[in-house]
């Protein structure tokens, strides 16, 4: 499989291209099938969806909150998400269709139940999205399955990325890739921080680095490939003007074709044999432009950007009580789970830090853990 050859660094003159359908299918299986076909026609190697078990991903308060938006498919956030969530039967149908036309099929695992579902589905790899890059229990379980993983790193710090690599190393799972990503929709060119691709490649020389882009157009993604990204993921849509918050920063079929053709030209010209181009060389190769120059500006370290905060506040994971916990109880691993919570609690990356701490008051099941209920 091409992806595995890229992950193992057997080849360097290829790029694996993922069309992220996500939930741009509008809850319609027939639309999803049409999108799979259009992605195949464009030359993509893979189509990817998003799989959630809503009760495992969200607290009840997050699901029950009112959702007032032009993009809403229900009056509560739970109804909205349920409308867009495909059943097990539909996943099998779409997987079979993808196999029939010759394109890889997978999904992001948004919680542990969905991880188990995708493992049972025998997908070629599982995606861990940026919202779960600090969900260390999910990552630990995913790594233990010895299934290839593609892990996005949006709205995370470098210390979190270091922890991801540590978890994979401890599980002796070498079949994974890290995706440079900025979780802003769309991402302004000044925040694309493509220089982080080089930073990640130097810091983790044995790990394949990719790019999951949310910017408008395809030039910046082409630049990411010239910087060294060997897996590329872009959101995909049939029409940017459709209802849904992801459509605007997605590529329509003609744009995806343009991206694939550009990468094919890089391969034909043997540009991909080199991952050490200077910024000026990349700008010249792609025809220049202020936005491209802004995207390629030098970056020294990975931090959470201001443009990512809306997404982190909306979809970032918190530590939540897995059962009712009494005042004075000392926190154990079995007491906790990770969910999108409303209101939010302690951020998921502190999961291991609070084990053994004591509760200063009782906490109900599905209630977020907050700092002032903990003491050492």
UniProtKB/TrEMBL annotation:
UniProt keywords, alphabetically: Transferase
Keyword Disulfide bond found: no
Q: Which reaction does it catalyse?
A: aldehydo-N-acetyl-D-mannosamine 6-phosphate + phosphoenolpyruvate + H2O = N-acetylneuraminate 9-phosphate + phosphate
For whether the record's keyword set contains Transferase, the answer is: yes
What is the organism field in this record?
A: Drosophila grimshawi
Official protein name in the record: N-acetylneuraminate-9-phosphate synthase
Question: A biological process (GO) annotation for this entry?
Answer: carbohydrate biosynthetic process
Q: Sorted alphabetically, which SUPFAM superfamilies does this protein's record hold? A: AFP III-like domain (SSF51269), Aldolase (SSF51569)
């Amino acid at each position: 499989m091409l992806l595995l050859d890229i992950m193992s660094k057997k080849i360097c003159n290829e790029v694996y291209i993922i069309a992220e359908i996500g939930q741009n299918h509008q809850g319609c299986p027939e639309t999803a099938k049409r999108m799979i076909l259009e992605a195949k026609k464009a030359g993509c190697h893979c189509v990817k969806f998003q799989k959630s078990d809503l009760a495992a991903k969200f607290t009840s308060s997050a699901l029950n909150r009112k959702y007032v938006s032009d993009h809403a498919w229900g009056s509560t956030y739970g109804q909205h998400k349920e409308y867009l969530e495909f059943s097990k039967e539909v996943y099998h149908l779409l997987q079979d269709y993808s196999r029939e036309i010759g394109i890889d099929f997978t999904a992001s695992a948004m919680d542990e139940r969905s991880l188990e579902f995708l493992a049972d589905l025998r997908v070629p790899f599982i995606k861990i999205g940026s919202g779960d890059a600090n969900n260390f229990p999910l990552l630990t379980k995913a790594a233990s399955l010895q299934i290839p993983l593609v892990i996005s790193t949006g709205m995370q710090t470098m210390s979190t990325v270091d922890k991801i690599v540590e978890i994979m190393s401890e599980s002796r799972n070498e079949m994974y890739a890290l995706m440079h990503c900025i979780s802003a929709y769309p991402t302004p060119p000044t925040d694309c921080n493509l220089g982080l691709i080089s930073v990640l490649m130097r810091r983790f020389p044995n790990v394949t680095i990719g790019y999951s882009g949310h910017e408008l157009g395809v030039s910046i993604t082409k630049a990411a490939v010239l910087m060294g990204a060997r897996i590329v993921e872009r959101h995909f849509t049939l029409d940017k003007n459709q209802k849904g918050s992801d459509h605007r920063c997605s590529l329509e079929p003609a744009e995806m074709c343009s991206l694939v053709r550009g990468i094919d030209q890089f391969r034909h010209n043997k540009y991909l044999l080199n991952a050490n181009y200077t910024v000026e060389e990349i700008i010249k190769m792609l025809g220049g432009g202020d936005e491209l120059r802004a995207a390629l500006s030098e970056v020294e370290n990975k931090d959470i950007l201001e443009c990512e905060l809306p997404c982190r506040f909306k979809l970032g994971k918190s530590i939540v009580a897995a059962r009712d916990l009494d005042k004075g109880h000392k926190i154990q691993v079995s007491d906790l789970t990770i969910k999108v919570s409303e209101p939010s609690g302690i951020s998921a990356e502190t999961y291991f830090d609070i084990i053994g701490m004591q509760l200063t008051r009782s906490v109900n099941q599905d209630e977020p853990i907050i700092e002032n209920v903990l003491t050492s």
